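I'd like us to work through together how a protein chain folds, taking it slowly. We need material for that, and I hope you will provide a protein of your own picking. Go ahead whenever you are ready, and we will take it from there:
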Amino acid sequence: MNKNAIEGKVVFLTGAGSGIGRATALKLSKLGARLALSDLNIESCRETAKQCAGGPHQVTLLNVAEYKRCIDTVKDAIGYFGRIDHVFNCAGINPTARDLVDCSEDYFDKLVAVNLKGVYNVTKATIPYLRSGSAIVNVSSICGVHPHKQMAIYCATKYAIIGFSKSMALELGPKGIRVNVVAPGYIETPTNASVMAGEEALKKTVEQVAIGRMGKAGEIADVVAFLMGDESRYMNGSVVEVNGGTG
């Protein structure tokens, strides 16, 4: 990674309080980026900022499902930094494996509001401030590429992210703004369903991965940084699967 491609850039980053969001914030800060960090858990977001190198960095409480709040948060970031160069839409809700008949309307609404509408909200709010050379990276999932039983609603949101991102790549590409997607596989984060389910569930998950282990959040962060850098300058509308070899 060419540090100069990220150094001094301002990145608007959601879901920064933990997992892939925090790992990406740490990665980008080491490369010299200035970060507008947001999360629904403000204390976790502040902890991320403390761990980041460089700065200044901004920390904001944000529920990405609330459009007006997204507009206001983006305006606050512009007021703080003067610009936004890149966007990382990482905020999301992990799934709970359950048959569709056992899924409530509230569960459906919550996943769609955060995982899908949240990306729409932040993307729409930031577009007026982006310029040629900017990059948007959205987080889909292995569940947005391959169907999984008992995860129909989550899969629907993550498949939708890919369609949305590819359409935005066509819309924004002529302006010099690239939109790409990272699709993580089984990543070792505190909210991962296999991790929370215990050792036996974790073992079954690992058996599905050719490399033979769960991924690390930092390994996704490396790809996000690449997608924002000059080395990926001809990538637009791409979906990068980072899953250790998972069928």
